[in-house]
Amino acid sequence: MSGLRSGSKNGLLKVRVVDFTMQGVVRLFAFISVVMMAFVFAFVVGRAWPVIRESGLSFWTGSNFDSQITEAYNAPAEAPVYQFGMFGLIAGTLASTLLALVLAVPTGIGTAAVLCEFAPLWLKKPAVACVRLLASIPSIVFGLLGLMVVVPLVEKLFITVDMQIAWLDLFQMTGRNLLTSVIVLAFMIVPMVVALTMDAIFSVSDSLREAGFAMGMTPWRVTWKIVLPSAKSGIVAGIILASGRGIGEAVAVSMVCGGIGLVPNPANGAGFLLGPILTLASAIINKSEAISVTSIESALFACGAVLLTIGALLAIMARQVERWIRRREGANV
């Protein structure tokens, strides 16, 4: 008996040692991750600080980023220009992302609901695999498709010679504009919205569906009234996270946006959607050839600092929205 007790004690001790070791390893890697993120944020903000400090409030309210880049590039070394305004870039980023979400969210949620609740098994498995694959396609592929397909199509369908003449004083109206950026971003965001929505729908208990069917509800009504509301916390969090990809997308958008940091204004009519824009991420790519100038380098790091801040806020918002919805539903969080 004493041998059995000592053996069980030794086994229990080994389990505790293993658990303690694994907890320590996990905490160590978590600490390293936090330190690395803090280092990246501090490095980017530190390099961007000269522009943020010198620009002051105009950093958030000023525009004409393109002319400011030219002015800083041509400025003498003894008198560098650190005055930059990011409002046009922020407006272009938010406009393209929000409009892309308007297209992508209903399409993504509807596709996910059909695949999860109505599609037969022979169609569901390959379709889900295709959605996962589309979500992992490199952005340069979407950019090439946008450049070769969407840009000529938008130019042919929406832009006339009279419109080009009317807007010639401000910019040259081409197929590279806000509308094209929205279409390309929507195609990039849809697979992510579908994948995250499917994960949220799969997590809904079958007992809820069975209760709806027992009350005589049709499959469509069960999906609309029971499944989607039960999965809304995951769906909303997924939409917020998907918007982070749209805001931070650089390569694909830089290929189709037009590369001019104008402020999109709905009062401009056709010029609102058919005018060129410049987002924060695409500005880093499009203006990187002038990064040898210290002030321009700081301005591009300032674009990165704003993107990091928006990304962090979106991640926090996604978590808080999910917790708020679940709390309202009576779940323990």
Mean pLDDT: 85
Tertiary shape = globular
Proportion of residues in β-strands: under 5%
Give the helix proportion (percent range): over 70%
CATH superfamily of the largest domain: MetI-like
Cα Rg = 25 Å
- What CATH architecture label of the largest domain applies? Orthogonal Bundle
Q: What name is given to the CATH topology of the largest domain?
A: MetI-like fold
Structural class: mainly alpha
Largest sheet entry: none
- Give the ordered list of helices and strands: HHHHHHHHHHHHHHH
CA distance, first residue to last residue: 45 Å
Structurally, the number of domains stands at: 2
- Number of DSSP-assigned strands: 0
> Mind telling me the CATH class of the largest domain?
Mainly Alpha
Account of the protein in words:
The chain is mainly α. The protein folds into two domains: 2-54; 87-286, MetI-like fold, CATH 1.10.3720. The protein contains 15 helices and no strands. The chain has helices spanning 2-55, 58-61, 65-74, 87-117, 121-135, 139-158, 161-166, 178-202, 206-214, 219-230, 232-248, 251-256, 270-274, 280-286, 294-328. The longest helix is centred in the N-terminal third of the chain and has 54 residues, at 2-55. The model has no long low-confidence stretch (mean pLDDT 85).
